[in-house]
C-alpha cells in the first residue's frame, strides 16, 4: 500500500500548539508564578518585553532582573491582563517550534521575535539559538493567533538537509535579523 503514493517532496516540518490564556493567568496569580515566567522566557525576551513585565520585575544590585508574581500581584488586574496573553503566545509559539524542530531543544534555546523592517514588519518568527549540535542560529517561520481565551501558534521549520544546502549568506542574514537589542 505504501507504494501507491508519492512522499511529501519538501524538507520542512510543521509544529502547532494551543494555549488557554486564563490558565496562565491563574499560574501568575499563584505563588511560584515567577518560575513559570523564567521557564518560558529567555533573559533576552524578559528585557525585550520589560515594559509589559514591569509590575513583575525588580532589578537587583547585581543587575539581575527578579520576577515577582503570586500574592503581591493579586488585585492588580492590569498587569495580569497584559502579561498572560504575552506568555500564552510565547508558550504556544515555543511549543510549536519544539514540535517542528528535529533537535532536542528547550524554551531557552528559542527566541520569539518580530520583524522590525520591510513589508513584513511586525511578523513573528523564531530563532533557534546555536548550540547543542547546531553551529549556527536558525530561523523558523511562525504564525500566532488569539481568539478569546485561546492562543494558537504554527511553526514551519526547515530540516537539517535544507540548512546544510543553504548558501552561507542566507544563514548569516537570518542570524543578523534575529539580533536582540
Automatic annotation (TrEMBL):
Example GO molecular function: magnesium ion binding
SUPFAM superfamilies cross-referenced by the UniProt entry: 4'-phosphopantetheinyl transferase
The 4'-phosphopantetheinyl transferase domain, residue ranges: 14-155
InterPro entries: 4-PPantetheinyl_Trfase_dom, 4-PPantetheinyl_Trfase_dom_sf, ACPS, Ppantetheine-prot_Trfase_dom
Keyword annotations from UniProtKB, A to Z: Fatty acid biosynthesis, Fatty acid metabolism, Lipid biosynthesis, Lipid metabolism, Magnesium, Metal-binding, Transferase
Pfam families: ACPS (PF01648)
An annotated GO BP: fatty acid biosynthetic process
Classification via HAMAP family: AcpS
Alphabetical list of NCBIfam families matching this protein: pantethn_trn
Name of this protein: 4'-phosphopantetheinyl transferase domain-containing protein
UniProt organism field: Coniochaeta ligniaria NRRL 30616
Taxon lineage: Eukaryota, Fungi, Dikarya, Ascomycota, Pezizomycotina
